[in-house]
Design goal:
Layout: E1 19-28, E2 31-44, E3 47-59, H1 69-79, E4 81-84, H2 101-113, E5 119-124, H3 131-153, E6 160-164, H4 177-183, E7 185-190
Parallel strand pairs: 5-6
Antiparallel strand pairs: 1-2, 2-3, 4-7, 5-7
Helix pairs in contact: 1-2, 2-3
Length: about 190
């Protein structure tokens, strides 16, 4: 990638002990891109060589779209939990908005397909406002999700337990609106 595309964050230290390291940060296709190139002279069994390694990391935006029962299954099997971003509440309230119904239907399908397993429904908030109020709010949101699944989807109440953790388990910094949006979520965790 040409250096002029990397902007002001390009960094290349002076060579020390025969190696060069160049690190750069830029934006490509609206995504943050981090690149490092390491060059080192070496010798192995009398043969001289030059080692060049390149690392490229492109940060993709958070996947959006409908959560599916299969995605829930895959994440639970692989990680033991899944964050659900398709459940919506009014600010500082725990009434579930109607646009959450598709995600809740997929959660219900997942739970119906796994009736012998038990799960925690965990409510998360960002760090805006009072911590204790957010603790109560996050628990009420988790209970609202559980009540919806029991009363509207016929899920056995004994299959779930609802808890709130406020802003104690962020997935990213709460310093931006985007970060706060990612931290406001409901998680399903296998018990």
């Amino acid at each position: 990638m040409p250096i002029n595309r990397m902007g002001d964050d390009f960094y290349c230290p002076d060579p020390r002990e025969g190696y060069h390291l160049c690190v750069a940060k830029g934006i490509m296709n609206s995504n943050d891109v981090y690149i490092s190139i390491f060059i080192n002279n070496g010798e192995d069994y009398g043969e001289r060589f030059i080692l060049v390694t390149q690392e490229v990391i492109e940060l993709n935006p958070l996947e959006t779209g409908l959560v599916t029962a299969q995605k829930i299954t895959d994440n639970i099997e692989r990680l033991g939990h899944i964050a659900i971003y398709g459940i919506y509440f009014e600010t500082a309230k725990y009434d579930i908005k109607p646009e959450s119904e598709k995600s809740l239907a997929e959660i219900a399908a997942f739970l119906k397909a796994n009736p012998d397993n038990k799960y925690f429904i965990i409510g998360h908030t960002d760090n805006t406002g009072d911590f204790n109020a957010n603790m109560t709010l996050s628990e009420k949101r988790a209970k609202a999700v559980m009540d919806y699944l029991v009363n509207k989807s016929g899920i056995n109440a004994g299959q779930m337990k609802a808890y709130g953790v406020s802003s104690m388990c962020p997935v990213t910094s709460n310093s931006t609106d985007e970060g706060k949006a990612r931290n406001r979520r409901v998680e399903i965790v296998r018990e």
